[in-house]
Amino acid sequence: MNISVILGHPSLQSFNHAIAREAVAALQENGHRVFYHDLYEEGFDPILWGADAKGAVAPPGSDPMRQELTMSDGLIIVHPNWWGQPPAIVKGWVDRYISERVAYLFPDEDEGGGVPIGLFSDKRVLIFNTSNTPKQREKEVFGDPLQILWKHCIFDYCGVKTFHRRMFSTIVNSTLEERRGWLQEVRETTGQFFPKQA
Amino acid sequence: MNISVILGHPSLQSFNHAIAREAVAALQENGHRVFYHDLYEEGFDPILWGADAKGAVAPPGSDPMRQELTMSDGLIIVHPNWWGQPPAIVKGWVDRYISERVAYLFPDEDEGGGVPIGLFSDKRVLIFNTSNTPKQREKEVFGDPLQILWKHCIFDYCGVKTFHRRMFSTIVNSTLEERRGWLQEVRETTGQFFPKQA
User: Fold this and answer.
1) CB contact A154 to B (< 8 Å)
2) Is there a contact between B119 and B154 (Cβ–Cβ < 8 Å)?
3) Is residue A55 a contact partner of residue A106, using CB atoms and an 8 Å limit?
């Protein structure tokens, strides 16, 4: 399988980086081809310029990320919870690449106000987040917005059927023991989600 | 009053720009001082580099936007609904400026996992959004995530007590008549929200 890993955190020493490394190791162990994108490291430009009423204008067919997404079998996205949302650099990746003709299509007669046809129905999406908000407060006070955004707003819309998301919290006062357990979980979840192919 | 207007849309011909112009006109009519930021036009850099476990590292005291926010009495934020979230450029403004010591403080004994003290309790916040999702579908299918993000996740956290948000939809198939009515509403709402000072 071809799997794209999208990571958005400024610090190489972050737990997000540790998660991404662990996920990559699990993918490679299962024989998958990994496309690794540390968006900060790559200096990814998050600004979408071409947007019309229908949404993002698709990047050109020769765009490497567009080509990669078209042929990928799965995505792993790793980022911290900043204000119930991904960091701007990850949001910009969504703005620019989860675009019409890459991730969804409108029926010919639709001007963009209707329900689209998802083009990601064969892709599996796995998301790992970190947070400093305790789980109960995140759910009860904020309604777990990252679940709403990634699942309902974005990937349901693109036709994704196999979706899993896990938020690790709270990072700021976690013990070494806890973090080791979380990384073990990342490894197992990733391995099960993207199993070895026969 | 000192009011900052934050606008995030790539096209000068957008309805978002029309909304922002109308809001500025209403503010000026009421004698307020306006700080206008078309983030695309300014080439705003949305990338937050300095983030520790507690969140964004505050920009230096000499940073002009930080100084402006410290002395502002209100904010008007204008952007389209892109995936239930603001565009990356607006998210980056949040990442960089809604930071510790600018917008909130943690009590000394707190490492960042707790509930902060909001520093925006005297500011009024008005948000205008545009969307191509019909209102009912936005509420029922997606749960109106922009309301959750701006009100519950961000400005409640910073102590804002006077908050109003209005989403205009659907833009893509609106009539000229409808858009004129919406701009009239922007003018009235802004005028009432930031009234003439005695």
Assistant:
1) yes
2) no
3) no
Residue contact B54–A145, C-beta within 8 A? no
CATH superfamily of B2-193: Flavodoxin domain (3.40.50.360)
More confident residue, B44 or A59: B44
Contact list in B for residue A111 (CB cut-off 8 A) is: 172-173
Q: What is the pTM (predicted TM-score) of this model?
A: 0.95
CB B16 within 8 A of CB B9: yes
**For the segment A115-164, what is each residue's pLDDT rounded down to a tens digit?**
789 999 999 999 999 998 888 888 888 889 999 999 999 999 999 999 99
Residues of chain B neighbouring A47 (CB-CB closer than 8 A): 10, 40, 46, 88-89
Contact at CB, B53 and A145, closer than 8 angstroms: no
Domain boundaries, chain B: 2-193
Mutate to test the interface with A, among B16, B153, B154, B175 (most CBs of A within 10 A): B153
Interface of A with B in 107-136 (CB under 8 A): 111-113, 132-134
ipTM of the complex: 0.94
Q: Is A91 in contact with B94 (Cβ distance < 8 A)?
A: no
Strands laid side by side in the A162-169 sheet: A33-38, A2-7, A74-80, A124-131, A162-169
Cβ B94 vs Cβ B77: under 8 Å: no
Helices assigned H by DSSP within B98-167: 135-140, 145-147
